[in-house]
Amino acid sequence: MGILPGRALGLHVSGETNFMRPRFWIEPALTSGLHLLPETEAHHARHVLRLAVGDPIEVFDGRGASAEALIAACDKKRVQIDVGTVSTTPEPATRLTIATAVPKGERMDWLVEKATELGVSRLIPLRTSRSSVDPRDSKLDRLRMQVIAACKQSRRNHLMELEPVVDFAEFLRSQTQPWFIAHPGGQPLAGVLCDHVPHPQPELVMAIGPEGGWTDEEITLAEAAQARRIALGSTILRVETAVLAVAAVVSALGYRSHQDIGGGGQSE
Predict the structure, then answer these.
(1) Is residue 228 part of a domain?
(2) Nearest CA among 264, 261, 247, 34 for reference residue 157
(3) In this predicted structure, what is the pLDDT of residue 40?
(4) Domain range holding 221?
(5) In the 8-state DSSP scheme, what is residue 36?
């Protein structure tokens, strides 16, 4: 693969991010200069988008850094890029962690995609008494690729962390500060946050149960571990709907005031 000097391509052009530019993930840490795209990203650039030398793109490293770049050189398997000035997006003011039972089939894919778009910082799959799904490591690896794809689409610069599956009892032992559990009889989430949670808050932790609901024992153990019950409306929600309801409320109330978007949000 021949290397073309990126400066000769006229790369470093100032101005706002162009939302029409294809967006690619690159392994951290992102710096100015020449880089190779990861294999899967290179395949997408060459064989799906049909990009060629000189085409403008945007890159991000999943840790807050992003930059405009140009395709500097390419062949069938590799794509070299010339990265311009790197900018950094700060972490949101509040980290939102959601621990959730795992829904069946492709609904977990949808949950991961939308939770990423809505700015969830960390997602913890839970194994509960009534869980019916226990994803294998290979499934989690595929879901992490879904996180990258969702960040590319939504222009988010920080990858959502997807943790390994943990037992609910282990999750409880890790909680050292007050947290929230969705369960009938709780107070509306928006009201609880507005009236009782200081703003900004370093981290909010929310737990969503399986479709069969939490057992009485799990609720008792959760409340003994400083959990507060919250309600997400008057109807019964699917697992993935409950996760998105929590993320949307937290975002709407401004807890994630440092915008984690490359140049601002935009819907498709």
Answers:
(1) yes
(2) 261
(3) 94
(4) 95-252
(5) E
The residue among 255, 116, 110, 93 whose CA lies nearest residue 190 is 255
Evaluate whether residue 264 is within a structural domain.
no
pLDDT at 179: 96
Gap between the Cα atoms of 6 and 106, Å rounded: 41
Contacts with 70 (C-beta within 8 Å, 6 or more apart), sequence order: 6, 9, 10, 11, 54, 55, 56, 57, 81, 82
**Mean pLDDT per 10-residue interval, the chain, length 268 residues:** 43 52 93 96 95 96 96 94 96 93 93 96 96 84 95 95 96 94 94 86 94 95 96 93 96 68 44
Query: For residues 61-86, b (16+ Cβ closer than 10 Å) or e, as one string?
Result: bbbbbbbbbbbbbbeeeebbbbbbeb
**What's the pLDDT score for residue 183?**
95
Structure tokens of 136?
A: 């294998």
Final residue of a domain: which of 66, 88, 110?
A: 88
Asked if 9 and 54 touch (Cβ cutoff 8 Å), the reply is yes
